[in-house]
Amino acid sequence: MALFFVNSLMTISIIGFYSGYFFRKKDQNRHRLFNSIGILANLSAAVYLLGMKYLLGGIAEHQIYPTAPEFIIHIHRFFAAITLVLMLCMGYLGWKRKRNLHVKLHYIFLPLYTIVYISGLFLFQSKPL
């Protein structure tokens, strides 16, 4: 159930980011709304995962099991952390209306976030191997 919750939040976030991207030139209010939803869903999932891992006994205690070797999981987490920082930077830059850097970062953020999202779907499962 925990993995379903995390994957659901991450799915909401990627839908929010791509919906926001779609409205970037057409409707700035929808662009802000969808990207805010994406950020909030992503942060909720990240806090939930970190809480499980470090405060509640580990992710295996909540029936989330890796399907790949540990070094692959560490690579996934490394890029997820970079993506999280990029997401927060983009949110801040958008909020402050620093359009030039905000626009440049989306060329890195969206593909990287998509890769991290898809890899997360395949790297974890709810049953032990």
Describe what you observe in this structure.
There is one protein chain. The chain has about 130 residues and is mostly helical. The chain is built from 4 helices and 2 strands, in the order H-H-E-H-H-E. The chain has helices at about 1-20, 30-55, 70-95, 100-125, and strands spanning about 65, 125. It has a two-stranded antiparallel ribbon. The model has no long low-confidence stretch (mean pLDDT about 90).
Offer a concise description of the structure.
The protein has 129 residues and is mostly helical. 77% of the residues lie in helices and 3% in strands.
- The number of distinct helices, counting runs of at least 4 residues, comes to 4
The largest sheet is: 2 strands, antiparallel
Radius of gyration from CA coordinates: 15 Å
Low-pLDDT segments, ≥5 res: none
Q: What is the overall shape?
A: elongated
Write the element-wise H/E pattern from the N-terminal end onward: HHEHHE
Instruction: Give the N-terminus to C-terminus distance in angstroms.
Output: 17 Å
Report the strand count: 2
Strand content: under 5%
Mean pLDDT, all residues:
92
Question: How do the helices and strands line up, and which of them pair or pack?
Answer:
Elements: H1 2-22, H2 28-54, E1 65-66, H3 70-95, H4 99-123, E2 124-125
Antiparallel strand pairs: 1-2
